[in-house]
Amino acid sequence: MTDTQDFDKNKERILAEAVRVLQAEGDALRVLSSSLNGSFTEAVSLLWSCKGRVIVTGMGKSGHVARKIAATLASTGTPSYFIHPGEASHGDLGMIVEGDVILALSNSGEVSELFDIIHYARRFSIPLIGMTSNGQSTLGASSNVALVLPRVGEACAVGLAPTTSTTMMMALGDALAVALMTLRGFTAENFRNFHPGGKLGKRLMRVADLMHTGDAIPLVAESDKMADVIVVMTRKSLGCAGVVDGAGALVGIITDGDLRRHMEADLMTRTAAEIMTKSPMTVSASMFAVELIKQINDTKRTQVFVVDENRKPLGVLHIHDLLRAGIA
Hints:
Helix content is 46%, strand content 16%.
């Protein structure tokens, strides 16, 4: 029998094993959520009152989880970074200073590489939060706050590879980060400041980030002749002109489509007020760009004006501006 035939023969067994692992880890998270107590709120209080940075550390698989937790904290408003326990013992302890809080991860709580950090925390009165499944371990007993994970078997076939335990650590780290976000009133705008790149950054762009402003806005008065309106539309190259009243408020829009619909011999002598589409759709500068492109698509529009509370134009956006920014 070939390797391919052997693999095909075991497909159902492989899928069944995958389902078992995911169910085991899901069950572990449910046990973890029901086990949360005052220690969690104490840990959040320590992190919330931290005047310096949250130092997250761990060895092996716990270390990989610790790196992710540090990154999540830092990106959601809690200054944080990861320190490798081995490097800490060779000088990086100097990176931990008064005002910091240490979050140390170890399933057993007896990882020797963490001991120097534990001793350093006690010697210099650096608050220590331990995340471990053994509250009586060296880490658990030495911590100001011990976040004790429920004892749930690992999901691997031999019950040894860190699987369920690291899943619980990861989730508990997320819970800490989100709790701190809530306390800080962390907003989407704050989040965007830390995530300017990639798809997430694009999702958090505002209309104000993309709109044409100032002299680039094609504006005409209600009484302007269409000959002059077409000149403005041609110069601004956005396929439209906003029509404003005497107070500067937007009262209409003229698009290329309006020109085609009114293509008659007297078009050039007619006024903007006679040709415009009245009360056009407008948006606010604070609107998320992803919300705008959905609205534009739903209403089959190509351009939209951005106005203030008095309907005075602040800018204008063409659907091509959104597409060029990668928002779709």
